[in-house]
Write a structure and sequence with these properties.
The structure is a homodimer of 149-residue chains. With 149 residues, the first copy, chain A, is of the alpha+beta class. The first copy, chain A, contains six helices and five strands; from the N terminus they run H-H-H-H-E-E-H-H-E-E-E. Chain A has one domain: Winged helix-like DNA-binding domain superfamily/Winged helix DNA-binding domain (Arc Repressor Mutant, subunit A, Orthogonal Bundle), CATH 1.10.10. In chain A, a hairpin with a 4-residue loop joins strand 1 and strand 2. In chain A, helix 2 packs across helix 3. Chain A binds a DNA duplex (30 and 30 nucleotides) through helix 3 and helix 4.
Amino acid sequence: MTTLSAEPRNCSVARTLEIVGEKWALLALREVFLGNRRFDEMVRKTGAPRDTLTARLKTLVAAGVLERRPVSEHPPRFEYRLTQSGLDLYPVIVSLMEWGDRYLTNGSAPPMELTHHCGHRLGAVTVCSSCGEVVLARDVRPTPLRATP
Amino acid sequence: MTTLSAEPRNCSVARTLEIVGEKWALLALREVFLGNRRFDEMVRKTGAPRDTLTARLKTLVAAGVLERRPVSEHPPRFEYRLTQSGLDLYPVIVSLMEWGDRYLTNGSAPPMELTHHCGHRLGAVTVCSSCGEVVLARDVRPTPLRATP
DNA sequence: CCAGTAAGTCGGAAATATGGACGTACACCC
DNA sequence: GGGTGTACGTCCATATTTCCGACTTACTGG
């Protein structure tokens, strides 16, 4: 018999989405990348319900993507900071933004522009780390698995 | 007064997430990128509830990311194909996968590898289209808006 | 005729999301 | 000292979604 029913794939995409696979999680991250590290600020800038944002931030902190740290004792105030793994989610955010800029602006200018430290507007492209070529879906194939011996 | 309450940002990330900002939508896209274009196959490989997948596919088709086309009349069979805008979501998928491979494999090998047509394992990196440098969050700033006159 | 597959739809229970009010702990100002 | 405002949540009741299993339709193949 062939692998007949193929359980749900446990790939890295699925695993990653367990952590960031929800609108408010990614929008909270967007805010932190933009420098807004405080709860109320995130509520305002994302439009997320306070409860939901609380839950998402907890997940992100538990996953080690954000760190919640006190910035003042009296009054008690906190901020959420990106950890290294959090910083490494930047490509996810920018590729979402890039796509929206291309397909969802309906002719008008993108609602926000980013400037790279090279001085130019950031245009983010995904390239292959081996050959440096722009990655197109049609140029990529899943590597066949070796049979389990 | 300063822009006191700052309505939720309507940025491209938020707009994009209205379409793909949910686990099953992105996993369905992953499957299509892997070549599985059929409904039942997506159900099996993603583990999504059939209803939910139906709903997500409808959204994706409505957004023009996928196209639902008949592949047989008798019996009626359909497949979902990526449109150009759908193909351009590839960077989102690969950057999610890249991150999971880095942070969620717990020491073991990634559950799936991709091969680029250059012959090497695909390592996807996001670079600035102007200077070619790898994009790091700390090297990017939002461009200040011109004041509305 | 029976089994199987593909592509959904349906219904009802369970889980989540949402919005508004509330709580706490201050700071600022008069 | 009292009133107002901000930050960071929590709580509750309702609304919406999700989830699962069963069912439907339309065939093919034996």
